[in-house]
Amino acid sequence: MKTQVGIVGAGPSGLLLAQMLHLAGIDSVILESRPRSYIENRQRAGVLEHGVVRTLADCGVGARLAREGMVHEGIDIRFGETRHRLDVKALSGGQCVTVYPQHEIVKDLVAARLQTDRPLWFEARVTSLLDLETSRPRIRFEQDGETRELACDFVAGCDGFHGISRPAIPGGRIDSYGRDYPFAWLGILAEAAPASHEVIYAHHKRGFALQSMRSPTVSRLYLQCPVDDDVEQWSDDRIWSELHARFATHDGFRLNEGRIVQKSLTPMRSFVAAPMRHGRLMLAGDAAHIVPPTGAKGLNSAVGDVRVMAAALEAYYRHGDGDLLERYSEIALRRVWKTQRFAASLCTLLHRFHDEPRFHMRMQLAELEQIVEDPRAAELFARNYTGLPFDV
What we know:
The chain is an alpha+beta fold.
């Protein structure tokens, strides 16, 4: 089997890349190891930057997002049991964020792909990437008990942090940068209307807490907890008690409680692999970088990669210009590192580091006060939160 671009992974980055290539007249095949039902129901964050919403609309997959997405013009930052609202739309020159669950984006992209009648193969487990430094790399995979090969011009590694693409780059050809944080997030989905129509970030001496939402009737809430905690240690009563304590304000704010339908524990990590290209293999999204979820930048950062990759492949096939392909990693990493800086700084700003002295908390409070009091600091925060410009 042959194609122009072989895409490993049918997450948001792989599916969006395939859609952008289709619109440019470039052939591709997507190989996904999981069943369709799995990728369409896997719960992930869903806060989309302004530019990501526009990208999805431009690619013809934004109609349902426009109808059902919840546009947020501000955020609520809490510290010292006091609410502080940042009008991110005004501060960023008109940019907003939109809450729309990631698995719904995947559903929209899968539907768009199926309409093209181009290959999207589920339960196709990639076992090796071959001849990456030649003009005809190959993807070997297993499907329906058979071993097959796909020959292509380029391979797009969109298969996540634990995928096969990044390890396919020989040792010594790629560097890794990272940090594991000494805490995790206990996340819940609750059948309760969000108590605020905007996201709440709460800094508290007991630890960080976050209120987001999946719909007008379903809340997504997070608690900072020890990294070695067990979800089974957290009863529903304990979770609600801790959430109420961390979100409490002097004006009597109360969360809405409801039946908890899902609990999960998420370790916190910052990670970047560079370069993001080796021969005819290009990495995108979690295959190349991970951000702590504090700033909801994972999916948004992946879209930045895909935009550069798609533009580079279009320039190559349409005009015979390989310059953008040569510079793919350089261009993508510029935005990746800026996004990493914001996500890591927000993580450090809002979480309690229990092994550090009280001095650190006082420094956090001083910075939070500057963000809500200094228009210049607030503007910088808002522009990073709503999304940095795309380089391509």
